[in-house]
Amino acid sequence: MKVFLDGRIMDSQQAVISPFDHGFLYGLGLFETMRVYSGHIALLERHYNRLRQAAEELGIDVTMTREELRFAILETLSANQLHDAYVRVDLTAGDKGLGPYAGVYDEPSWLIFAKPVPEFPPALYETGKKLQVLKRPRNSPEGEWRFKSHHYMNNRFGKMEIGANPDVEGLFLTENGCLAEGIVSNLFFISEGVIYTPDIKTGILPGTRREFVMELAEAHGYTVREGWYYIERLMVADEVFITNAIQEIVPIHTVNEKRIGEGTIGTITRQLLELYRKHIV
């Protein structure tokens, strides 16, 4: 695999960062997971803006413009001969020696890698996944809102709890028992034609696909509501689905042991998936 590191394309085995990089020592790093369709980097502007806003709050200089980042991603794709890809962009704080640092991180590192998008079975979009409520609650966000950061321990605990089954997604609740989000996804449910999703203030990640699906649904006449909802609302929903950048929109057939609807993709979820694929590029 060829990767991009600080302006250069190189073999992944040659890519190194300083052992004193604060992204490694203290988790002061951010990342974005992107999907590329036939060379088009989907929702790049939204990814870049989220990364930039988080970096500004952490005092990390964003040393590439959006267009420079686009070019770096395209370079990485070309080096790996990829047109449809999973792309990850990491921005780490950089080397400021040992100990906490109060100043601006003005020499961060950029790491980009790309790999083929997995071949998802048709059943993923017809039947979907099981959603398992996790015992461990969602932790508090790093700042005023949750960053997509290297601080991933809460997600690690969630993944350990559900195991390696790719057909199961773990669902975090807040400390007071309200719906939050999946380990690697945002959550939606539908009742009587209205689409609901947990509020950002519950401490969830402001997902790029969450925002995109909300806008898409409203533009096509659906009512979308954000709020604080308990698990009981999910259990009686007509449809449930999750979103993320790589798998797009995935229906949920079961929550814990409770079947949702007919146990297959619902009418509105199917419409949203069709709209998503029509408009994402």
UniProtKB/TrEMBL annotation:
Give the top-rank taxon of the lineage listed in the UniProt record for this protein: Bacteria
This protein's cofactor list reads: pyridoxal 5'-phosphate
Show the SUPFAM superfamilies listed in the entry. D-aminoacid aminotransferase-like PLP-dependent enzymes
In terms of Gene3D superfamilies, this protein maps to: 3.30.470.10, D-amino Acid Aminotransferase, subunit A, domain 2
Known Pfam families for this protein?
Answer: Aminotran_4
Quote the InterPro entries the UniProt record gives: Aminotrans_IV, Aminotransferase-like, BCAT-like_C, BCAT-like_N, Class-IV_PLP-Dep_Aminotrnsfr
For this entry, list what GO says about its biological process. amino acid biosynthetic process; carboxylic acid biosynthetic process
Quote the subunit structure annotation. Answer: Homodimer.
Instruction: Identify this protein by name.
Output: 4-amino-4-deoxychorismate lyase
State the organism of origin: Aneurinibacillus danicus
